[in-house]
């Protein structure tokens, strides 16, 4: 009996929409009753099902949908983007009430593709809980991230998206979305289909999809529509391309998308043009020509023959372009299983690809194309020259490219794999399956059926401070919308509410809250972030300050945003019991809740309350309110040097020392860029003794050492001497490279507990020269050269010793790395878990 399958994609256009339609055609080729449904785009087949969004019936929900779409997705998310990448970042909301669409509700199998703005997480959770068979093909990484479709090198999807490098996220939209997804479709979740082994590996290591069943099934292609052109020579002539000319093709849905690598290929061609290498490799009189298609034209230069085809919607035209080309270029920086590669190979055109994502699985070296050694211009240039020398005009290569696709990607081949997967997971059929003709009539009947918009995000998405954004943008219209209650912790787990302060200088891999990624099983951590300041409080900021003065809270602890965060924590604890509240930045938060009576919390039980303090004892003296410290169940310090600040106010049994950690998976030793002189690095501004660093630099130069100092800080001192390079705003990757490039970290300090810059240098295996203050010696062990505070001569002598004996410097770097590994966040997470366990007892 035939199974009914609905393939769902938000849009029919774009790479994912085209791949989704092809999966639908593959399913049909296997005898399944398949439908292809989408909400954006026009029908291109008689039986397409085009969802027609209609306004939500509840006025408040309709207003919230407008806020989510117009103010959040196409407002906040666009204006707050960083320059890390320009690939789309999207939320799931607003979605569609797909359970109100009869064909979708009745299907045996629901096969999802690209679902931003169509599949509400809560709906998928309900379907999974009810036993519906759901398959999800991963066309990008969005189902496993907090919003990005490609992570641009970030790996937070493996644990939790806490600080997004692609978005200046003051409203915690990304972490809230990540948490909502994890609650909605983690195991037991949908059956995941990955077109490439690379994507399957990403899903397997992700925190959201890692527990799901994962199958590798490549994308299919219509091998009749995309096929070698018998009149290829005549077609090339019609395009103005001679038989010896080299015709390259490059195209994407939008050529402005940086991850597609168009700019890198253009740079490679420019180099080959300017130095004459390509002209020398081609036959006499032969030209280079570049065919481009997609949104926005490709750049070029005078003398480059270009064929600009614009946006191509006709498959026959696209197949002509690809079939006429000698080589399709896919120079991606990030990619999964791009359609153009499959389409070119089906047309018998070999491909040049970068060693990125699933591309090396699609293109086999010397069989269906060439794989460049790296995704950079010179590597592409060299690979292009190799193609001209070895494969230009190679009929055998074109035939083997076509044969590969016929064997691995033809509709019947993929259809059989999908049918086997569907049969393995499908529940017993409760309806008699219709015949093909009747099924087609049903598709036609529902071809433009209305589907209400759904705008009821889950409790995780509506957490602080995203809820304040929605209230601000939606006003009274959304204020009365019922918020779903948070789900209680699973039996046997402890609910932890962790509150941390968002500092702009914390990257995706820094910040004291990173241990929360690595807590062991049995702890259900709900992580909330508070931006510094009082911007969220708005006109009430002065009221909060006044209340703070009445409560005796110090200036650092009564910022308006922090008061709002505590109010939100109280509401969360009043609704659902919590076991522990942990303020990761104790100097800046948890000033109110420890004073409140137990009856305000769910079940009348006050959670245990812990706070971590980061500042040195001298600084803490003017920040702490001693009367509040006694109400804490645990005080967590970073080093023993802080203990005196608490000795008179907190029971010693409640004081725990847990060191600061470091991401040793990211901050690692690596290749160094060439550079002149003895390179020194200084990072940061808080409690830095820049004057001693500059004085030491002068002494080093007087001693004859060609010392160079690179200072990375958002707040450079006003008296920076000549020759010091000052920078700010580096990405995590650029900061890591700065540590790798330096000969030593020169970081004199006025005081310190732990220090990110020192830890990052240790993890990168670089020698550290710093000041023996606070907890620095405790943190570094015997792996750093430490001198007394303000001792410029001592700093200079330590650097001279390293410069004079590279063997000693190398040994110190190895010891530094070993010390960093002892402070890895995984170990620090286990130490925190031990503190939490003690609170439970």
From TrEMBL:
> One Pfam match, by short name?
Glyco_transf_4
Keyword hit for Ribonucleoprotein: no
Superkingdom in the source lineage: Bacteria
> Which SUPFAM superfamilies does this chain map to?
UDP-Glycosyltransferase/glycogen phosphorylase (SSF53756)
Is the Transferase keyword given for this protein?
Answer: yes
Query: What keyword terms does UniProt attach to this protein?
Result: Glycosyltransferase, Transferase
Q: Taking every annotated instance into account, which residue ranges of this chain make up the domain Glycosyltransferase subfamily 4-like N-terminal?
A: 100-224, 558-665
InterPro entries given for it? Glyco_trans_4-like_N (IPR028098)
The name of this protein is Glycosyltransferase
Source organism of this protein record: Roseomonas alba
């Amino acid at each position: 009996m035939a199974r009914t399958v609905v393939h769902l994609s938000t849009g029919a256009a774009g790479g994912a929409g085209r791949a989704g339609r092809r999966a639908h055609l593959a399913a049909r080729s296997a005898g399944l009753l398949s439908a292809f449904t989408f909400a954006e785009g026009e029908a291109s087949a008689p039986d397409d099902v085009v969802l027609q969004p209609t306004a939500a019936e509840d006025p408040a929900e309709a207003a919230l949908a407008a806020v989510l779409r117009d103010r959040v997705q196409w407002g906040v998310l666009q204006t707050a983007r960083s320059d890390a990448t320009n690939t789309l970042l999207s939320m799931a909301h607003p979605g569609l009430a797909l359970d109100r669409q009869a064909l979708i509700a009745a299907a045996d199998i629901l096969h999802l593709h690209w679902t931003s703005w169509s599949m509400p997480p809560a709906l998928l959770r309900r379907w999974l809980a009810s036993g519906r068979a759901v398959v999800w093909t991963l066309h990008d990484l969005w189902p496993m991230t907090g919003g990005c479709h490609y992570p641009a090198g970030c790996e937070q999807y493996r644990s939790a998206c806490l600080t997004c490098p692609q978005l200046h996220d003051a409203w915690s939209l990304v972490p809230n979305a990540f948490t909502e997804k994890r609650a909605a479709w983690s195991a037991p979740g949908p059956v995941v289909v990955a077109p490439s082994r690379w994507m399957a590996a990403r899903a397997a290591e992700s925190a959201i999809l890692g527990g799901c069943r994962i199958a590798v099934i490549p994308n299919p292609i219509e091998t009749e529509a995309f096929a070698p052109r018998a009149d290829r020579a005549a077609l090339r002539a019609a395009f103005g391309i001679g038989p010896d000319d080299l015709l390259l093709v490059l195209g994407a849905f939008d050529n402005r998308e940086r991850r597609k690598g168009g700019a890198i290929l253009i740079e490679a061609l420019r180099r080959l043009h300017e130095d004459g290498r390509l002209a020398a490799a081609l036959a006499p009189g032969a030209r280079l020509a570049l065919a481009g298609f997609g949104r926005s034209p490709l750049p070029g230069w005078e003398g480059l023959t270009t064929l600009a085809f614009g946006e191509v919607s006709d498959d026959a035209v696209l197949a002509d372009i690809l079939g006429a080309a000698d080589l399709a270029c896919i120079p991606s920086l990030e990619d999964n299983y791009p359609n153009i590669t499959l389409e070119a190979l089906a047309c018998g055109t070999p491909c040049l690809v970068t060693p990125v994502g699933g591309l090396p699985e699609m293109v086999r070296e010397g069989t269906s194309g060439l794989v460049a050694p790296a995704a950079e211009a010179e590597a592409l240039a060299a690979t292009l020259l190799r193609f001209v020398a070895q494969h230009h005009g190679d009929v055998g290569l074109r035939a083997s490219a076509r044969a590969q696709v016929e064997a691995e990607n033809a509709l019947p081949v993929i259809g059989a794999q999908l049918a086997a997967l569907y049969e393995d997971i499908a529940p017993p059929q409760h309806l008699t399956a219709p015949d093909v003709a009747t099924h087609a009539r049903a598709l036609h009947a529902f071809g433009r059926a209305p589907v209400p918009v759904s705008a009821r995000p889950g409790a995780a998405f509506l957490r602080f401070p995203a809820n304040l954004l929605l209230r601000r943008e939606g006003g009274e219209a959304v204020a009365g919308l019922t918020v779903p209650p948070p789900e209680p912790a699973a039996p046997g787990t402890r609910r932890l509410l962790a509150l941390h302060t968002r500092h702009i200088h914390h990257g995706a891999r820094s910040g004291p809250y990173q241990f929360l990624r690595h807590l062991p099983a049995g702890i259900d951590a709900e992580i909330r972030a508070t931006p510094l300041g009082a911007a969220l409080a708005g006109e009430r900021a002065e009221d909060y300050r006044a209340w703070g003065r009445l409560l005796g809270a110090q200036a650092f602890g009564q910022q308006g945003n922090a008061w709002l965060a505590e109010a939100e924590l109280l509401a969360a604890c009043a609704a659902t019991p919590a076991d522990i509240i942990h303020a990761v930045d104790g100097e800046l938060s948890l000033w109110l809740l420890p004073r409140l009576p137990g009856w305000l919390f769910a079940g009348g039980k006050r959670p245990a309350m812990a706070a971590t303090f980061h500042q040195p004892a001298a600084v803490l003296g003017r920040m702490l309110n001693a009367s509040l410290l006694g109400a804490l169940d645990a005080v967590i310090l970073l080093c023993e040097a802080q203990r005196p600040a608490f000795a008179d106010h907190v029971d010693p049994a409640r004081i725990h020392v847990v060191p600061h950690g470091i991401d040793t998976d990211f901050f690692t030793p690596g290749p160094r860029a060439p550079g002149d002189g003895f390179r020194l690095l200084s990072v940061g501004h808080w409690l830095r003794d820049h004057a001693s660093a500059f004085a030491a630099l002068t002494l080093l130069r007087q001693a004859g050492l060609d010392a160079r100092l690179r200072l990375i800080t958002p707040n450079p001192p006003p008296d920076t001497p000549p020759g010091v390079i000052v920078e700010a705003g580096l990405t995590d990757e650029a900061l890591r490279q700065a540590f790798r490039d330096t000969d030593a970290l020169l970081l004199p300090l006025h005081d310190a507990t732990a220090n990110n810059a020192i830890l990052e240098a240790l993890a990168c295996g670089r020698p550290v020269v710093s000041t023996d203050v606070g907890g620095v010696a405790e943190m570094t062990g015997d792996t750093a050269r430490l001198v007394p505070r303000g001792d410029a001569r001592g700093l200079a002598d330590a650097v001279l010793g390293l410069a004079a004996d590279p063997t000693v410097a190398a040994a110190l770097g190895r010891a530094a790395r070993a010390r960093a590994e002892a402070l890895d966040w995984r170990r620090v997470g286990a130490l925190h878990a031990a503190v939490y366990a003690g609170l439970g007892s």
